[in-house]
Amino acid sequence: MLRYSLRQLEYFVATAEYSSVADAARHLNVSQPSVSKSITKLEDQFSSQLFIRHHARGVSLTPAGERLLVDARGLLRYANGLQQNVQESSDIIGGTLEIACFVAVAPVFMPAILADFSEQFPGVDIKLYEGNQEEMIAGLSNGQFELAIMYDSALPPDVVTTKLASFEPYVLLPTGHRLAKQKSVSLASLQDDKFILLDVPPSREYFMNMFRQNGLDPHVAFSSPSMEMVRGLVGRNRGYSLLVTRPYYDQTYDGQSVIPLPISDNVADGILGIAQLSQIRPTRVMKVFLEFCLDWFAKHHLNTDSCKAARIPDTALSGTVDTEALLPSSKPRK
Questions:
Q1: Which H/E stretch holds residue 16?
Q2: What is the CATH architecture assignment of 169-262?
Q3: Where are the domains of the chain?
Q4: Nearest 5°: phi and psi at 301?
């Protein structure tokens, strides 16, 4: 007979994620003693210490706690999915969905996607996280994220993706650059210029491989994990950059203009997809969100074989999609 409850596991997971009993209690809208008592009961039940208590500095997981966290997240997710499956005859789609998005992509697409999705499915509570490729893969593996929107590059075998869009990389130049008025730019023509590298995985290797495959060795003058820092340095004539994601305006945070141009060399497109662990059975909400994203990118003409840049077109970003395509019985498109 089970001697622990889903509620206790929920309190345990929240405490692990916030690294604090007090913060977990505030998040769950329950008393701090209730959370502490639940954790103590779990530790007694499993005969293992799950947390190390740090005076005035919260808590951290023990190795036993780390192992339990993965299974607890999976069990809670399965329990929620079970409830949703029972309610599938209902027209109301609800629940919580925890998703992640690649840090360079999230500001361009996620505000519009979340706004449109919430308008059509107000009963779904989406928790959004941003990170680099390594962080999102780790989050999928440990059960923190259910889905992740990322570029399909250097993924482990147990992470599968459904393609959302394919984007051509481009060169970003300052307005006064000698090549700024050309229709396209070759990588060789930039060999002697200063290169500003978007230094976040997998972008780092993706862009450096473009040069290697063309027998070139760029002069990396600056690097940054922030796309806007890269764009800002280009705008201030500190060098050029290569990017895939393109904000709507060709202007930096400090008001400088930048010029995106196609690359004339034969370079690999960036494939944006929505990823999940292969061994995870998708919940109804996961299926609905995946289908919504497919239709959203199609509606905005961003799921073609090769878009000019990962950029939202000059059209309205709100609207609806065919709800029949979002039923749980529909199969994700490959």
A1: helix 6-18
A2: 3-Layer(aba) Sandwich (3.40)
A3: 6-81, 90-166+270-326, 169-262
A4: 60, 40
**Residue 189 carries which DSSP code?**
G
Residue 230, token pair as written in the block: 């890269």
What single DSSP character describes residue 110? H
Cβ-Cβ contacts under 8 Å for 83 (sequence gap 6 or more): none
Between CA 45 and CA 161 the distance in angstroms is 38
Task: Answer whether residue 86 shows pLDDT above 80.
Answer: no
The answer to whether the CB of 260 falls within 8 A of the CB of 308 is no
In angstroms, the Cα distances linking 27 to 18, 22, 40, 208 are: 9, 9, 19, 42
Q: Which CATH class is domain 90-166+270-326?
A: alpha beta
Report angle CA 256, 297, 331 to the nearest 5 degrees: 155
Residue 23 token pair: 């913060």
Helix (H) or strand (E) segment spanning residue 167: strand 159-167
Kindly calculate the radius of gyration of the chain based on its CA atoms and give it in whole angstroms. Answer: 23
Express each pLDDT in 280-329 by its tens digit: 778 888 899 999 999 999 988 665 444 454 454 433 333 333 333 333 33
Of residues 170 and 81, more confidence is placed in 170
Gap between the terminal Cα atoms of the chain? 43
Which residue type does 252 have?
Answer: T
Report the alpha-carbon angle 332-112-98, nearest 5: 55
CA distance 315 to 312: 8
Topology agreement, domain 6-81 and domain 169-262:
no
**Measuring CA to CA, which residue among 44, 58, 66, 245 is closest to residue 164?**
245
Contact between 129 and 99 (Cβ < 8 Å):
yes
CATH numeric code, 6-81: 1.10.10.10
SS (H, E, C) 195-247: EEEECCCCHHHHHHHHHHHCCCCCEEEEEECCHHHHHHHHHCCCCEEEECECC
Q: What is the DSSP letter of 152?
A: S
As a whole number of angstroms, the distance between CA 334 and CA 325 comes to 15
